[in-house]
Amino acid sequence: MKAAAFDYARPGTLQEALSALREHDGRAKLMAGGQSLGPMLNLRLARPPVVIDISGLPELRTVTRQGGMLRVGAAVTHAEIEDGVYELLRGTPLQQVAPGIAYRAIRNRGTLGGSLAHADPAADWVLTVVGLGAALEIAGPDGVRMLPAEGYMQGAYTTGLRDDELIAAVHIPVPGPQARWGYYKFCRKTGEFAEASCAAWFDPATGTARVAVGALDGAPKLLPQLAARIAQQGLAALDETLLAKELAGVMQDKDEHHRKLHGTAVARCLAQALG
Asked: Which of 186, 187, 189 is nearest to 198 (CA)?
């Protein structure tokens, strides 16, 4: 199939993009890399009257340091993160995650903000930002607001974004000298979405200990008791009973097979981070 007819707009600034969103009263679709929206248009699952291309907006294409956080523009591509194009992202958790996203052709075009806006429960970035305790910079008609990552995704393909807003950037913590990161996912084959996934972030400099599981029916979920115990006692404190209990609390609708799969993903993620 081919897409239904639509108008195409390519604003030159962030404010022009926001004005275009307001003008079309929630009926427009934003396109950055187009790796999710493109297929939806061709299958006619999405039929917007206008597509607003924000891939070239300079405000969305920078990476800067702001205190203890890195501000990563929403239109930065997976491949640019993978290849270390931005010096500030080299050696960060983002660079470790990026090579495992889909295929290189997808990574060449797909963007950080686009993946988060699409909000597929099995996607890598939605789990990564929760695991890191990141914050999303949301631009709208009333200015900019910050939204904690764990409060952003409300369900499968459902987010805290309003129709007249867009993701401008993601703010991630600058890793301390002893910070450790782990990321593990199960896929049927390379490039596919995960069936189970886990992200773990420990930074003694800030007292941060986070373990999050993804590829659920909705948003990623944190395992705070397990994270605190591992931070205090190390990897040897990984307890199957506690892990099973915490997973049961966030996977009530999953069968024993999926809980086992996620439990293994958590164990391997922690081994990667702290082993």
From this structure: 186
